[in-house]
């Protein structure tokens, strides 16, 4: 299945997102695209470009509760897919869930008795989420705080930004919230 890439401008602390699409849907999204070191084919399908760019822009501008783009699940299988689908369907906009609560809700860790193992495993699954933002792993938090997020300090700032957008956290004075799309001429 051929994969092509779309770059979407965002107000996120990480900068633009890169979104990989296949005929089945979005297969990968990346907050921290950096230099891939290789030439990747750009998407040339105007309908896909418009849908991906428009829906992500609308979500980040606070005009949409989810990107609602089709997902190509080929990069997540088994228990990982079950946990990601549980997150997607059971944890709505503006809500959070702890790693341990998501582990229990998914049902894939029944019989695990080692304290914290299921929660740690869910944390690893969130770090390996192939489609962040579409499957909102930013909504999964630690029992005692915000928890982690890939990409180190910038990743945590992305998580804070998204949780602020959704009303989970209070905005800080430097938060560049939903008005960014209008200011950038995208609204």
From TrEMBL:
<dbReference type="GO" id="GO:0003908">
    <property type="term" value="F:methylated-DNA-[protein]-cysteine S-methyltransferase activity"/>
</dbReference>
<dbReference type="InterPro" id="IPR014048">
    <property type="entry name" value="MethylDNA_cys_MeTrfase_DNA-bd"/>
</dbReference>
<dbReference type="GO" id="GO:0006281">
    <property type="term" value="P:DNA repair"/>
</dbReference>
<dbReference type="InterPro" id="IPR036388">
    <property type="entry name" value="WH-like_DNA-bd_sf"/>
</dbReference>
<comment type="similarity">
    <text>Belongs to the MGMT family.</text>
</comment>
<keyword id="KW-0234">DNA repair</keyword>
<protein>
    <recommendedName>
        <fullName>Methylated-DNA--protein-cysteine methyltransferase</fullName>
        <ecNumber>2.1.1.63</ecNumber>
    </recommendedName>
</protein>
<comment type="function">
    <text>Involved in the cellular defense against the biological effects of O6-methylguanine (O6-MeG) and O4-methylthymine (O4-MeT) in DNA. Repairs the methylated nucleobase in DNA by stoichiometrically transferring the methyl group to a cysteine residue in the enzyme. This is a suicide reaction: the enzyme is irreversibly inactivated.</text>
</comment>
<keyword id="KW-0227">DNA damage</keyword>
<keyword id="KW-0489">Methyltransferase</keyword>
<dbReference type="GO" id="GO:0032259">
    <property type="term" value="P:methylation"/>
</dbReference>
<dbReference type="Pfam" id="PF01035">
    <property type="entry name" value="DNA_binding_1"/>
</dbReference>
<feature type="domain" description="Methylated-DNA-[protein]-cysteine S-methyltransferase DNA binding">
    <location>
        <begin position="87"/>
        <end position="168"/>
    </location>
</feature>
<keyword id="KW-0808">Transferase</keyword>
<dbReference type="InterPro" id="IPR036217">
    <property type="entry name" value="MethylDNA_cys_MeTrfase_DNAb"/>
</dbReference>
<dbReference type="InterPro" id="IPR001497">
    <property type="entry name" value="MethylDNA_cys_MeTrfase_AS"/>
</dbReference>
């Amino acid at each position: 299945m051929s994969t092509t890439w779309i770059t979407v401008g965002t107000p996120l602390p990480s900068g633009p997102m890169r979104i990989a699409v296949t005929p089945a849907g979005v297969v990968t999204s990346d907050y921290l695209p950096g230099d891939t070191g290789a030439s990747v084919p750009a998407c040339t399908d105007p309908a896909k470009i418009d849908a991906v760019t428009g829906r992500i822009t609308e979500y980040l501008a606070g005009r949409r509760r989810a990107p609602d783009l089709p997902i190509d699940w080929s990069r997540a299988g088994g228990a990982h897919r079950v946990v990601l689908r549980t997150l997607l369907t059971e944890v709505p906009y503006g809500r959070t869930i702890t790693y341990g609560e998501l582990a229990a809700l998914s049902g894939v860790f029944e019989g695990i008795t080692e304290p914290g193992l299921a929660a740690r495993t869910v944390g690893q699954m969130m770090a390996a989420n192939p489609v962040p933002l579409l499957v909102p792993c930013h909504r999964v938090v630690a029992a005692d705080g915000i928890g982690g997020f890939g990409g180190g300090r910038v990743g945590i700032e992305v998580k804070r930004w998204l949780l602020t957008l959704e009303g989970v956290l209070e905005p800080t004075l430097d938060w560049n919230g939903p008005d960014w799309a209008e200011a950038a001429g995208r609204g």
